[in-house]
């Protein structure tokens, strides 16, 4: 790719040449998912971009070749002109010497009138020979100059560029015929005034053009070069690359400036097309991100009600039949939530909205917790379940605990799903500066021919697998992409009928400072629960979610007051003191974020009441927005009892001097 095109891509799109293929590939994939006619037109335009870029690059290359030809012709012409000037100087010197000889001969003849004419014939013969030699040399120089001018003219016409030659002594400019025709003018339309140039430059570009011109004339720049718009005779503007070089006298004063004009309108149109494509892609990405955020909120909000009410119902006196039905409904709702999370995660990865958040993690404690979660399912299927952690592994590592858990939960869950007899094991091993996580099972295994497809989206090793075991085929694809985002690699070893090993490797990074400076979030299983009854303000506009939170917290012995929106929450806090606020992010009127900012502003430097976000938005940016607004915790919907109580305990466990809501 030509360096000028690389420079424009960097300026217009912020891309290096190495990043362009991946950028175009992503645009094509996104365009390929759309179905409407406008998107189809956009997709065809995107798929033609590589050919357009190649043509633009070749245009730049041809321009370089043309300019090199012009430069070489100018150099040759300059050399020939210099040689001719030296010849003319020698000719003038010889002429002066001949005239001096002639003058001496005449003077001698006047002094010696009686001398014989033959006495001076020798001088006259020498003089005649000198004059004849000068005449021949002059003809040779004139022929060389004509040849040089012809070569230069051919080079300029071949390059299709316009030439200008500015004589600074009288402020006149020679504009070549091609310079004039490029702007739609006939030979006689344009004179030799400098204003013919300045009046045709676009008013917005003229200050920059004059500044560049003056910078070169003053010696600040080695050459003059600028791209500006010139007005065509019919009124539209053409982009011209103007280049020039000043000729200076012995004192360094510019006396002449010669340059060329190159029409670069096609390149400019290509650059504008690239910028428009980038803007369109960014707009599409923003629209997709907004859609994902809305979908996350709209799906998780009713799921919060479904799962929450099922939890509450299962916690009431029930007959065996009722409990069985509700448990089946809860299992189905959990499966639906898992599918929803997979689809949203996959969409976030494709949209580039999934972030990795590293923090100091006790890997051994995390693994212990994960295996405890899966012990029950293993026992139900009669499977042995074990895990082993390499003693050489650091006590704490910088990881994204949520994403590592997500990958391990998916791998362990798959191992249990596809194993009927035998065992499941998790082994974590240090390998140099990396850590290897491996989940092994004695399940159905994967045929070698199908192993290349298991990490592809919406794909399972065998179509019958979906019918027998269910699933979207997204779990492994998401895990593969998550490991890649964390700087790792993922793979498998498997044999049909003899089990599988899924493994991934991550780089080891240990905390630099205090290893406990950024501890991992308190897990639901290990979180201390508040011992005393709390007065809690719930800001939530959804009636079902209100009922769910009031019932769940009421069973824990807490008193809950409900505010319908952010404004009502601010007003309630002004009238009554609370131990804690649970704040929904998206509410009509004053949002949860704005309400939190008002509450923090009203507190000033005084008492600080803990505020925990309750939100159906599942993006890292939403979590960051909550914390930036002044919230102390974050619980995503659908809300589970253990997670909510853990978040409350963690918020209340912060230093007392930071949280003094009720003294």
Please provide a brief summary of the model.
By secondary structure, the protein is α/β, with parallel strands linked by helices.
Strand and helix map with partners:
Layout: H1 3-13, H2 20-33, H3 37-47, H4 49-111, H5 121-159, E1 162-167, E2 172-175, H6 177-182, H7 195-198, H8 206-217, E3 224-231, E4 237-248, E5 254-263, H9 265-314, H10 320-350, E6 359-361, H11 363-381, E7 384-389, E8 397-399, H12 401-417, E9 423-431, E10 434-441, H13 463-469, H14 475-485, E11 489-494, E12 500-507, E13 535-539, H15 543-555, E14 559-563, H16 566-575, E15 580-584, H17 592-603, E16 611-615, H18 620-629, E17 633-636, H19 641-652
Parallel strand pairs: 7-9, 13-14, 13-15, 15-16, 16-17
Antiparallel strand pairs: 1-2, 1-5, 3-4, 4-5, 6-8, 9-10, 10-12, 11-12
Helix pairs in contact: 1-9, 2-3, 4-5, 4-9, 9-10, 9-15, 10-14, 11-12, 12-14, 16-17
Structural notes for this entry:
With 663 residues, this protein is an alpha/beta fold. It folds into 5 domains: 3-47, no CATH class; 160-263, 2-Layer Sandwich (Beta-Lactamase); 281-348, Helix Hairpins (Orthogonal Bundle), CATH 1.10.287.130; 363-507, Heat Shock Protein 90, CATH 3.30.565.10; 535-652, Rossmann fold (3-Layer(aba) Sandwich). 53% of the residues lie in helices and 16% in strands. It has helices at 3-13, 20-33, 37-47, 49-111, 121-159, 177-182, 195-198, 206-217, 265-314, 320-350, 363-381, 401-417, 463-469, 475-485, 543-555, 566-575, 592-603, 620-629, 641-652; strands at 162-167, 172-175, 224-231, 237-248, 254-263, 359-361, 384-389, 397-399, 423-431, 434-441, 489-494, 500-507, 535-539, 559-563, 580-584, 611-615, 633-636. It has a 5-stranded antiparallel β-sheet with strand order 2-1-5-4-3, sandwiched between helices. A 5-stranded mixed β-sheet has the order 7-9-10-12-11, with helices on one face. Strands 14-13-15-16-17 form a 5-stranded parallel β-sheet, sandwiched between helices. Helix 12 (401-417) runs antiparallel to helix 14 (475-485). It is elongated, with a radius of gyration of 42 Å.
